[in-house]
């Protein structure tokens, strides 16, 4: 397997979790007494700390103080997930291996899932492998479109899904393994011609495929692992699942 770097998206404010008494960045919110980002980085401990880039933004000094020793890239202003990874380009430009992109507010994803995705990516020879997960509860995630042979077609956001597409159980988790050079080329091509005027990383796989690259989908049954923390209710739910996983 080639050398691996991780880019962990950790710039968000967590607007729905802000209160008069607590203005902490979302990734510093605690579950079972530890920041959300701590739980994520614990599951990424098979990647060297110096190769794990934190993309920080809102009150970034607090995140940097809480996790010293990690290289950081500053995302200000915050203009989408694609823009977040673009902010880490300077730390990736001379790298020739695999880049794992994941989220600092998804603490339930287990190490084995990251490792399996990376193994699948290395074995397939793809330039991009995206993680697709199924979940018993409804989550407003994009759907991964595939043909009858499980070849990647594209990703359609939840709000843009037809009624038929909403029945698709393969959710785009937002976790990817990229060939670094293919990722950097795709980042340069991202457009923000959408309602939010943001640059979406979800567009990168299609751009890589359009440029002649190979895109694979790694499908897994993930259930609660793909719950992101966006509300106080999801934070409480996450604590409960961390205890069930024996990670409290």
From TrEMBL:
Family named by the database record: In the N-terminal section; belongs to the N-acetylglucosamine-1-phosphate uridyltransferase family.
A GO molecular function held by the record: glucosamine-1-phosphate N-acetyltransferase activity
Keyword Transmembrane helix applies: no
Protein name: NTP transferase domain-containing protein
Catalytic activity line of the entry: N-acetyl-alpha-D-glucosamine 1-phosphate + UTP + H(+) = UDP-N-acetyl-alpha-D-glucosamine + diphosphate; alpha-D-glucosamine 1-phosphate + acetyl-CoA = N-acetyl-alpha-D-glucosamine 1-phosphate + CoA + H(+)
UniProt-listed CDD domains: GT2_GlmU_N_bac (cd02540)
Role: Catalyzes the last two sequential reactions in the de novo biosynthetic pathway for UDP-N-acetylglucosamine (UDP-GlcNAc). The C-terminal domain catalyzes the transfer of acetyl group from acetyl coenzyme A to glucosamine-1-phosphate (GlcN-1-P) to produce N-acetylglucosamine-1-phosphate (GlcNAc-1-P), which is converted into UDP-GlcNAc by the transfer of uridine 5-monophosphate (from uridine 5-triphosphate), a reaction catalyzed by the N-terminal domain.
InterPro entries assigned: GlmU-like, MobA-like_NTP_Trfase, Nucleotide-diphossugar_trans
Positions of transmembrane segments: none
Residue stretches making up the MobA-like NTP transferase domain: 6-132
Keyword Lipid metabolism attached: no
Domain of life: Bacteria
Keyword annotations of the record: Acyltransferase, Nucleotidyltransferase, Transferase
């Amino acid at each position: 397997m080639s050398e691996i770097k991780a880019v962990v998206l950790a710039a968000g404010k967590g607007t729905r979790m802000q209160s008069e008494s607590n203005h902490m960045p979302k990734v510093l919110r605690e579950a079972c007494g530890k920041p959300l980002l701590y739980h994520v980085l614990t599951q990424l401990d098979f990647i060297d700390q110096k190769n794990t880039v934190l993309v920080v933004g809102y009150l970034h000094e607090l995140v940097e103080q809480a996790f010293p020793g990690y290289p950081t890239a500053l995302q200000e202003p915050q203009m989408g997930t694609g823009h977040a990874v673009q902010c880490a380009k300077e730390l990736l430009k001379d790298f020739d291996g695999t880049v794992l992109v994941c989220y600092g507010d998804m603490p339930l994803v287990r190490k084995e899932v990251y490792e399996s995705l990376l193994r699948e990516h290395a074995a397939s020879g793809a330039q991009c492998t995206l993680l697709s997960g199924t979940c018993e509860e409804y989550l407003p995630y994009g759907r991964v479109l595939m043909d009858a042979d499980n070849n990647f077609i594209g990703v359609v956001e939840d709000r843009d899904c037809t009624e038929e597409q909403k029945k698709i159980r393969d959710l785009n988790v937002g976790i990817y393994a990229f060939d670094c050079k293919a990722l950097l080329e795709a980042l340069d091509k991202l457009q923000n011609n959408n309602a939010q005027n943001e640059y979406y990383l979800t567009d990168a796989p299609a751009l890589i495929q359009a440029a002649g690259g190979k895109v694979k989908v790694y499908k897994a049954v993930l259930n609660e692992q793909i719950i992101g923390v966006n509300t106080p209710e999801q934070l409480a739910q996450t604590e409960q699942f961390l205890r069930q996983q024996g990670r409290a």
